[in-house]
Amino acid sequence: MLDTIDLSLSLDRASYVRELTRRQIQLRELGYQVYQRKRPVIILFEGWDAAGKGGVIKRITEKLDPRGYAVYPISAPQGEDKTRHYLYRFWRRLPERGQIAIFDRSWYGRVLVERVEGFAKEDEWKRAYKEINSFERQLRDFGAIVAKFWIHISREEQLRRFEERQRIGYKEWKLTDEDWRNRDKWGLYEEAVDEMLVRTSTRTAPWCVVEGNDKYWARAKVLGHLVEILSEELSYQPADPLGDLERKAGKSAKRAAKKAAREATPKAAKSAARPDKPELPDAKLKKKTQPERKSKKPKQAKPKTKQVKKPKS
Question: Which of 65, 212, 225, 230 is spaced 20 to 30 A from 159 at the CA atom?
């Protein structure tokens, strides 16, 4: 299955910034709807080491209300989690209604690292497929929104990123000896991933496989897919902020172009375009277009006649 993924897909920086801005604003609007509708949201990420899971999570949460989400980086179980069923530590990290939980790695470690490294017996990891499907089905029946992402990169791209982390000081902490050991078992992990995607991609909780060789493409695809899932589940379509700006800018540009064309057109050209209306001299044109008002003659006051009384005879 992984062999069929086109890892050549990419996005230039200008298109990436544009798409990222649009989706982040829409996700913020949808995040408020999640709170209003009281729907729990579970977003989980799996992928190769250095596939860019942390970078994608950073872009998802960048514009969200920090009170509305929690991020859980998952590693080997410790303490009480180690003494209980492997799903126990995920049950107690599930989000409340109206909250978002993001898992950087998840319960799929049972059928990936625990399978390959021998931490789980064969009958245990084989049984886990059914347990995981049932677990996710319970979440969906409860009303949770579940989004699952596998970020896929090539073996050559992983090596390039490993070497980059070795060279750059502030990225060096991300690379461990375990990452190099896992790389040596690429074939075994690839077989485990293929089986995981086939057996746990259900109608209620399907996988979204992300082409991750180009980080810009991967981030834009994940955010776009999240917007689609949340919009469908919440029956709410967020506004397209950049689309509104484009329409306003387009109308302004058209008005400016028409105004410039009117100003650039000479008077003679306008007259030539209308031969049936010959050009008039300015004086006549003024007289025709602005007729003079008739001046009103002032009313003359009538002289008052004095009445003379006749003498009585």
Answer: 225
Q: How big is the CA angle at 281 (ends 278 and 284), to the nearest 5 degrees?
A: 100
> Residues with Cβ < 8 Å from 175, sequence gap 6 or more?
50, 162, 165, 166
What is the C-alpha to C-alpha distance for residues 242 and 312, in angstroms, rounded to an integer? 103
Residue 173 is given by DSSP the state: G
**Residue ranges of the domains in the chain?**
2-239
∠ Cα 12 16 17 (to 5°): 125
Q: pTM here?
A: 0.78
Instruction: Please report where in the chains the tokens 């990123």 appear, as a residue.
Output: 161
Q: Rg of the chain's alpha carbons, rounded to an integer?
A: 37
CA 28, 236, 34 angle in degrees (round to 5)? 50
For residues 166, 170, 174 and 177, what is the CA-based torsion angle, rounded to 10 degrees? 40
Q: Could you tell me if 102 and 72 are in contact, meaning their C-beta atoms sit under 8 angstroms apart?
A: yes
pLDDT band at 1 (very low <50, low <70, confident <90, very high): confident
CATH placement of domain 2-239: 3.40.50.300
Rounded Cα distance, 16 and 212, in Å: 14
Burial (CB count <10 Å: 0-12, 13-18, 19+), residue 295: exposed
> Which sign, positive or negative, has the C-alpha torsion 15, 19, 22, 25?
negative
Determine if residue 297 is left, alpha or beta; phi over 0 gives left, psi from -120 to 50 gives alpha, anything else beta. beta
> Phi, psi (5° rounding) for residue 279?
-70, 135
Is 34 in a helix, a strand, or coil?
Answer: helix
* Residue 6: its H or E element: none
